[in-house]
Known about the structure:
Structural class: mainly alpha
Organism: Paenibacillus septentrionalis
Strand content: under 5%
Protein name: Alpha-E domain-containing protein
Mean pLDDT: 83
Largest sheet: none
Amino acid sequence: MLNRTAEALFWIGRYMERAENxxxxxxxYYHLQQDEFNHSDAFDAKxxxxxxxxxxxxxxxxxxxxxxYGDYSEHTVLLYVTLDRENxxxxxxxxxxxxxxxxxxxxxxxxxLWEVLNSFYLWLKDQNGEAMLMDSPHKFFSQIKTxxxxxxxxxxxxxxxxxxxxxxxxxxxxxxxxxxxxxxHTVQPAxxxxxxxxxxxxxxxxxxxxxxxTYRRLYxxxxxxxxxxxxxxxxxxxxxxxHFAFHQLVERIxxxxxxxxxxxxxxxxxxxxxxxxTAELDCIEVSELTCETKDELTKRLLDSCSxxxxxFGKTFFxxxxxxx
Length: 324
């Protein structure tokens, strides 16, 4: 498989996962914001602005947003992260990038994938930001998640389990691990508040990952920072935990069918490094997830995600560098 094909598939996986994660995060934050506004006697403008700032922080585009918009408000943030074509990480940009990559593979990729992704893009580009805000942001973001699930369903149903599939899945799980860690990193300040004050943010983390019901089945009514970190970072069976994503990433990389000796050696090195990372996660005790260590752990794992992306670029891709 040509390295430009591998790179295109890898980024299709990343961009589609990024689009779904953006929709999940924004939808939950929007409802948190509405709930707090409805139950609050006084409007705190700074607190309101800080909460929308966390979304932009979680998406890793704070400097770009402030240069273009300046103030953090519901209106500016929602437009920036959804339909702003000047933002390379907006929903419409992510779907457009994934579509452009898939278009270069029309002769290789199943027709069903193109039909779903092209229809998704055509629907999304016709959406109006003002109408979305006036109508129902929740309805809009639910539709985004539905389109993403249609794409994943088609991929699982029709793609042969060869290198093409493995590269797309690698991009997907690397992006998933990074997005989960970004969400945790963004809410760190809120987790240092009192139990009552931090409760909405703890609940928001779980809901943004579709893990609220699963968490309640495992831990009943115990909603604490340590338990949520255990669930979101270390749980081996929750599909959106960091542990699960890294283990799936290792499995997909190991499944690569490579013929060149030099490429095999580089491939084995990446597998060893990520395996060390997963082994470290396996050995972490819940008692170690204290307020002092959780932020350090999150940052270290985010750095590991960046390293993995760079190594993929140097090893498998034409340009030698991967950039989100």
